[in-house]
Structures are given as C-alpha cells and as structure tokens.
C-alpha cells in the first residue's frame, strides 16, 4: 500500500536533484562568467584602459572607439586563420567588418611590462594623427590578454608586393615610384614633426600600404611603443635589411633611424631588388660611379637619368653614417616632391595607375588586354604624377 506515496517521494527527490543540478550548473556558469569579467577587467587595467577612458572623457573631440570584446570576436570570426592578411614581428593582422565597415584588426604580440601604463596615453597620441598618407587608428580593445588595435582597411596590398610580388612583377613607372616615395616621406615627416614626435621604428616597403589609385599610406607606426625594442626582438622581426646600424649599436631609436630605413626603401624603388645586402652594394656603386648598372631597367631612360641620379644622391645622404649627417624627414619629403615634378611624363604614364595583377579577390580593378590591372581611376594624372580627383 506504500506504492503511490513512494512513487511521489521518488519523483520529488528526482525533481529536487534535477533542480540542485541546475543550480550547480548555473552557479558554475556564474562563477565562470564572473571570472571572465574579472579577467577582462584585469586586462583592461593592465593595458592602461582606465587612464585611456578617463582621458577620452576629457577630450570630447577625439575620434577613437573602445571596442567591445564581442565586436572583435565577431569581426575576426574568433581570430580565424582564414582572415589573416598580414603577420609581422609585432602581431597578426586580420581583415574584418565592424558595423559593415571593413577594418584591419591587429592583435599585438606582447607588451613591455614596464610601459603598460604609458600604453593608453601613447594610443591617444597615435589616435590624434590625421594625415592623408598615414593609416588611421580607429580604436582599440583592451579586454584581451594582448592589446587589439583597429585600423582603417587599405585595399591593395603593399609596396613590397608591388615591387617583389610573387606572381610576376608589373611595370611601375618612375613617376609612380617617386610619388609613392614622396607621399610616404611626407607621412613620416608629419609623424616626426608632431608636438610629441612619433618615431616609426619599422619603416620598410611592407609597411607602406597602397590604397585606391596606389595612394601610399604608412602603416604600423608607433608599434615601437608596443614592441619591446631590444635587439633580439628586432633581429627576430626579420627586417634586418632596413635597420639603422647605429641603432643596432646603441639601441636608441631616433628620427634619423627612420630616415635610414626610408633610404633603404628608396634603394628598393630605384633598383627593384629586395633589401638584403642591398645597401652596401648601392653604396659601393655610388662610390665607383656605376650606379646606372644597378637601376631597375624598367625606369632607366635617357630623359629621366638626371632625376634618377638626384634621387640616388638623396638616397646616399639618407644612408649616411653617423646618423646626424642624414637629412631630416621633412627635407627628404620636400626634395622628393620637387623631383617628382621633374619626371618627364611618358605617353603610358596614365596607364601606370595599374599596378597589381589581380593579386587577390578583394582588389577592385579590372584586367585589360595587356594583362595589367587598371583601377577605376577617379582622377587624372597631371604633370607632377600626382592624382588629382
């Protein structure tokens, strides 16, 4: 006769155990969530986030966003390998969309412990940089173990790809090369001339991005702030060909270190060769008066020989030792603008806003009968080789 009441009791016990089990799961989840929130807050504090948000409240005009963790996870598809568009010594760059706008999301490699608190201030300095030829820093997310920086997305690969692309080189006229050099040096000159000067620390052709109409945009500036700039880190970064030898001895980064590295980019533009051992070959050729043999045959042309020699001379000065003999970046920019204006335009110069074969599907240009890519140009090229839209 105990049957029904036993059944009821065991049902109640089962329900209680189920409820208890759910409570335990909910409790565990809540502990896990609290742990994640604490961890996130910890990272935010560690990366100087509090200071950054306080300073943002003071400066209302600041166009800088503190992104949520979810924004970054969704945009990168949880840091999916397929969305990687670049990897360097200082981090990995993913392409993603935030609010339907394409962005480049950089996951920094690490943080110099001693400079964590300065990081927020430094980011604000970087976010105030507004220049046509500098990639814009849109914001950051400080809720991960390492800082995440969000930049505007620049569509067409890099100067390194343009000069040394795997899938066959394309013809790039002297006018276009000099215009890209002039725009990049202008950007670096601007960074050096700010009230709180920004040293780039990693100038190389792979950090000069090319936007629509091959407009140059300098990227990765200010990463020297994030990376611990010691020799091991730099040598591991694999950009040894660009490094100022003086900096390698002293480990002190100066504006003239950037000038030296930019000089290496100029040698690349003149010769079309990769930078390994290039500087000493170039310097020897300058001494022996045989530099014409080094110049990329695509651009060597009787009409422009005088301009090429002047660019080579400017390049020699950028690479001078000791560093204080090098010109300032703003002088380099001024000289390159002048030289760009002297290049005789050839009939094919307008076709020269080419440049890549369809390197990847994100490129917007169309390929014409010559097998070159023409981007849909919005401007016309005038005698200086600049695009006027």
Automatic annotation (TrEMBL):
- Residue ranges constituting the Protein kinase domain according to the UniProt record: 79-349
- Which GO cellular component terms, listed alphabetically, does the Swiss-Prot or TrEMBL entry include? plasma membrane
Q: Which Gene3D superfamilies match?
A: Phosphorylase Kinase, domain 1, Transferase(Phosphotransferase) domain 1
What are the GO MF terms of this UniProt record?
ATP binding; protein serine/threonine kinase activity
Task: Give me the segments passing through the membrane.
Answer: 7-26
UniProt key word Transmembrane helix: yes
Q: Which SUPFAM superfamilies match?
A: Protein kinase-like (PK-like)
Q: One Pfam family of this protein, by short name?
A: PK_Tyr_Ser-Thr
Q: What is this protein called?
A: Protein kinase domain-containing protein
- Supply the source organism for this entry: Oryza glaberrima (African rice)
């Amino acid at each position: 006769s105990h049957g029904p009441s036993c059944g009821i009791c065991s049902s109640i016990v089962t329900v209680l155990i189920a409820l208890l089990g759910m409570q335990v799961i909910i409790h565990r989840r809540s502990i896990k969530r609290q742990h994640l929130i604490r961890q996130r807050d910890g990272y935010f504090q560690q990366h100087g986030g509090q200071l950054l948000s306080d300073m943002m409240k003071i400066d209302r005009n600041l166009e800088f966003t503190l992104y949520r963790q979810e924004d970054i996870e969704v945009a990168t598809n949880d840091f999916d390998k397929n969305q990687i568009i670049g990897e360097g010594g200082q981090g990995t760059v993913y392409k993603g969309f935030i609010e339907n706008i394409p962005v480049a999301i950089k996951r920094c490699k690490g943080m110099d412990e001693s400079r964590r608190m300065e990081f927020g201030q430094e980011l604000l300095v970087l976010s105030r940089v507004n220049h046509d030829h500098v990639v814009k820093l849109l914001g950051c997310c400080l809720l991960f173990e390492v800082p995440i920086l969000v930049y505007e997305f620049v569509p067409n690969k890099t100067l390194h790809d343009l000069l040394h692309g795997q899938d066959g080189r394309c013809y790039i006229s002297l006018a276009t090369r000099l215009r890209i050099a002039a725009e990049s040096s202008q950007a670096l000159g601007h960074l050096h001339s700010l009230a709180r000067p920004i040293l780039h620390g990693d100038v190389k052709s792979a950090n000069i991005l090319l936007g629509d109409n091959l407009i140059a945009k300098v990227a990765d500036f200010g990463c020297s702030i994030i990376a611990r700039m010691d020799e091991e880190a730099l040598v591991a970064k694999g950009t040894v060909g660009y490094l100022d030898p003086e900096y390698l001895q002293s480990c002190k980064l100066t504006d003239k270190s950037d000038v030296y590295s930019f000089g290496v980019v100029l040698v690349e533009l003149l010769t079309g060769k990769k930078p390994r051992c290039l500087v000493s070959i170039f310097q020897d050729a300058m001494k022996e008066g045989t530099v014409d043999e080094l110049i990329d045959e695509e651009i060597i042309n009787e009409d422009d020989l005088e301009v090429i020699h002047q660019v080579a001379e400017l390049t020699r000065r950028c690479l001078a030792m000791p560093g204080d003999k090098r010109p300032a970046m703003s002088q380099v920019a001024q000289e390159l603008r002048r030289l760009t204006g002297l290049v005789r335009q050839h009939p094919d110069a307008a076709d020269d806003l080419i440049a890549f074969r369809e390197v990847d599907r994100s490129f917007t240009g169309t390929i014409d009968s010559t097998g070159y890519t023409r981007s849909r140009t919005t401007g016309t090229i005038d005698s200086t080789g600049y695009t006027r839209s």
